[in-house]
Amino acid sequence: MTTVKNQPFERHPHSTIIEYYSEEGYKVWIEQIKSGKQFILDSSAGRGSQGNAKQKIAEAFQEESGLVLNIYSTQDVLSLQERSHLGQTILIIDKASQNLELYTTTPETTAGEVPAPSANSQIINLLSAAKAVIFLDAPDKREYLAQALGIEASELVEVRQAAAPVTVESPWWVEGTKTVALSLILALGIRSFVAEARFIPSGSMLPTLQIDDRLIVDKISYRFKNPERGDIVVFSPTEALQKQKFTDAFIKRVIGLPGDKVEVKGGKVYVNDRALAENYIDEQPHYFYGPVTVPSGSYLVLGDNRNNSYDSHYWGFVPRANIIGKAVVRFWPLNRMGEIDPLPTYKR
């Protein structure tokens, strides 16, 4: 669908609100950081359409040897203690108010009153030592974050998306082309009762899968065989993800099979102590993980966008029962319609 601009949000009386469309959001982050802002709150919706913003920010600060890290948990923040260039590091934190222990718990007083919690100084000191921190959080968390950081709310620059755009229906021939393309794919061998269509909502599988790609997921093959290393699979949220309120299916690449020993170090993924030749990633992993042994009946999955993917190295393994099927064919956009490339080197 095509979008047109609507009326913007009103300005908050005590903040700087920069309005933008989410696909251009990373540019606003860069402008604010270069102007000397350290703490930024992005309360916009639809952040997935920004694509690989992390890589674009890193490129913008390349001359300053800037590092860009995604932070998903308190443990991720604590690991920053081991970094020697924290002052040059830019942090992107998703739902800090929910995922980080920004405040310490306080015991109940003898009078039965619970005093206001104090900030977690260890976490706040590490965040304050970074070059910049971008909080991806709800707009009503602004005061909560500012209080934890020990700053005035007006010092927390807020970046907000322009008001919800008005949608204009695409021309009939565009919708018709999509329908015909899907019908052709199904007619050429993909049986509708054993397959389903899926779209890609985020950049975690870049460069293999682009945002808004449409795929056909084969749901019958795994009834007769097990997933193989290198397969791109769709799976329902694991128990750990359900506890984090995730409900939509995930799509990642199978890396570790049951019984495999997996480790990430030195920019490479090792399976059973052998480096995996991965021709489908653009950037080597910048983190360390493992070694871990994949439990029986489970799989270890990673996103091809190795440094910008919320996957097994954060939340654990995928039980066999959670796997819905294998992504086999891309049917939209038309200029990339066909099998999903590239075929992993180790499967040739």
Structure report:
There is one protein chain. A hairpin with a 2-residue loop joins strand 14 (268-271) and strand 15 (274-275). The chain is globular and about 60 Å long. The protein is an alpha+beta fold and 348 residues long. Helices cover 20% and strands 26% of the residues. The chain is built from 9 helices and 20 strands. The longest helix is centred in the middle third of the chain and has 16 residues, at 172-187. The strands form 4 sheets. Strands 9, 10, 11, 12, 17, 18, 19 and 20 form an 8-stranded antiparallel beta sheet that branches. It has helices spanning 25-34, 53-60, 74-78, 96-99, 121-128, 142-149, 172-187, 239-243, 312-315, and strands spanning 2-4, 17-20, 39-42, 67-71, 89-94, 132-136, 157-161, 166-168, 195-199, 214-218, 232-235, 250-256, 261-265, 268-271, 274-275, 289-293, 298-302, 318-319, 323-332, 338-339.
